[in-house]
Amino acid sequence: AKRNAGARYEFFSPPLNDRVQSEMLTETLLRAALQTRQLVLHYQPQVCPADGRLIGLEALLRWPHEKRGLIPPGEFIPIAEKTGLILDLGQYVLESACKQAAEWRQAGFEFGQVSINVSPLQFRQSNFADTVRQTLNDYGLPASYLCLEVTENVFVDTREQLVLNILSELQQIGVQLSLDDFGSGYSSLNYLHRLPFQELKIDRAFISGADTHPQREQLFEAIVRLGRSLGLRVIAEGAETAGEFALTVTHHCDGLQGYYCSPAVPANLIQSQLQSFRATLKASGIMNDSDR
Ligand code: C2E
Ligand code: MG
Ligand code: MG
Ligand code: MG
User: Fold this and answer.
1) What beta strand segments (E) does 105-169 contain?
2) What is the residue with the minimal CA distance to atom 19 of ligand 1?
3) Cα 100 to middle of ligand 2, angstroms
4) Most buried by CB count within 10 Å: which residue of 83, 212, 257, 283?
5) Ligand 1 in contact with 71 (CB < 6 A)?
């Protein structure tokens, strides 16, 4: 009897069932969290490696959970994308970030730009650019303070011409456009020069360990040069150590966003994070005087 029970168990394939059920539960809870505005944005500083100056803040979504603490986006964004909830979620992020940026401007805080992540599904809405324009208007935020990050995935499953049209509409509005996780997806080298991006974010995989592996460093340097030669602002994602950070100075990245400087933190902790980073910089002597 025991063996039979085991066989039945296998036949119904519970792991799959469990997964579907837990995804459905997640979607229900996520929808409720969105409706009650429980989702929060944390902000990760982007700094100029040469002098530690703040040049931008990336808004990253967090889902506070009673028992589990903050749930990271990797656990719920894919489900939101599957179910289409990402459209409402994306609008919530757009509004929250614009509101916050407008408040920072009022307060005289010079944050450079606020960056938000845009899902390919949002991009597929033909009125996406109008929505962005309207939201900027609603909060009185000049377009140049907002940066939209998209990954190469935006070109998967969507006609290239449609993506290009929306990108150029957004460019006309005056928002900044950034290509996120560069090098990690399917290569965009052949269209990079035709896209109206101002910024390239080099995927964390390229800086990771590049200070101790010369070939990785060469690859990292080549990508920085590629971006710069196309006139793009180049941001290195994910420097965690002093050695990795030093590479962003040596190879003249325009910006660095990584744990070495700061993780994403609630808005009220940004200033103190930056202060302690600058203290570390001063003490380490990594800063390149000739670049200041
Ligand atoms: P992303 O846009 O590439 O964001 C950078 C991710 O790298 C963030 O993870 C950040 O915390 C992490 N990171 C930054 N520096 C370091 C580092 O030095 N070391 C390591 N190990 N990680 C670092 P997070 O917040 O978990 O977000 C993961 C992804 O979820 C984001 O990747 C983005 O694709 C997506 N995401 C986050 N918020 C949103 C959102 O509001 N909308 C959409 N559509 N996607 C979002
Ligand atoms: Mg991003
Ligand atoms: Mg990224
Ligand atoms: Mg990513």
Assistant:
1) 114-117, 146-151
2) 238
3) 18
4) 257
5) no
Residue 180 CB–ligand 1 contact under 6 Å: yes
Ligand 1 in reach of 181 Cβ (< 6 A): yes
203 touches ligand 1 (CB under 6 Å): no
Give me the long-range contacts of 135-142 (CB less than 8 A, separation at least 24): 135/91, 135/94, 135/95, 135/98, 136/98, 136/173, 136/175, 138/95, 138/98, 139/95, 139/98, 139/99, 139/101, 139/102, 140/102, 141/98, 141/101, 141/102, 141/105, 142/174
- pTM to 2 decimals? 0.93
Tell how far the Cα of 73 is from the centroid of ligand 1, in angstroms: 7
ipTM of the complex: 0.98
Q: What is the 3-state secondary structure (H, E, C) of 222-284?
A: HHHHHHHHCCCEEEEECCCCHHHHHHHHHCCCCEEECCCCCCCECHHHHHHHHHHHHHHHHHH
Q: Is the CB of 231 under 6 A from ligand 1?
A: no
Average pLDDT for consecutive 10-residue bins of the chain (292 residues)?
A: 46 70 90 96 97 97 92 96 96 98 98 98 93 98 98 85 92 97 79 89 97 97 96 98 97 98 98 95 69 42
H-helix or E-strand spanning residue 70:
strand 69-71
Q: How far does residue 57's CA lie from ligand 1's centre (Å)?
A: 12
Q: SS3 for 189?
A: coil
Cβ neighbours of 172 (radius 10 Å)? 12
